[in-house]
Design brief:
Radius of gyration: 15 Å
Number of domains: 1
Structural class: alpha/beta
Distance between the termini: 25 Å
Strand order of the largest sheet: 1-3-2
Length: 143
């Protein structure tokens, strides 16, 4: 989903699976057992991201943060744009979209989607990222 908002589009395919805390390890083990031909990582550190995600297709199993903005699409629970934008600011697994690309993503996402600013800032506060999110939004709005 992020690729549609990026200028420098990565040629890799990452799938993020956010799971309730009690199911993270079970989902990770199940995905590893499927021999999907891609790396499967469980809540990787920045070092693990640099080592195992760089330049390869991967599945990342992460713990779902409580009260994350979610919605239902085609019968599946998926993250809302507000969750994706906040996760982009600070999640190790999203290192490929850092720096100026983060600003591009925020700008294009806000142009093409109905971003609920209240949900965005509430989730950003919950993740201790509100200051950075506000900084990005103010920077875009003042350009």
């Amino acid at each position: 989903m992020l690729a549609s908002f990026m200028i420098h589009i990565p040629i890799i395919d990452y799938v993020f699976v956010d799971v309730e805390k009690v199911g993270v390890e079970s989902v990770f083990n199940a995905l590893q057992g499927m021999n999907l031909g891609r790396n499967v990582l469980m809540t990787p550190s920045l070092e693990e991201c640099n080592r195992y995600l760089f330049g390869t297709n991967a599945i990342v199993v992460r713990q779902l943060i409580g009260q994350s903005p979610l919605t239902i699409a085609d019968g599946c629970v998926v993250p809302r744009i507000e969750k994706i934008l906040v996760d982009l600011v600070g999640d190790n697994e999203l290192f490929f979209a850092s720096g100026s690309e983060t600003y591009n993503i925020y700008e294009f996402a806000r142009e093409r989607n109905n971003v609920n600013m209240s949900k965005l800032l509430r989730y950003a506060s919950r993740r201790n990222r509100k200051d950075k999110v506000v900084e990005i939004i103010n920077s875009i709005d003042n350009d």
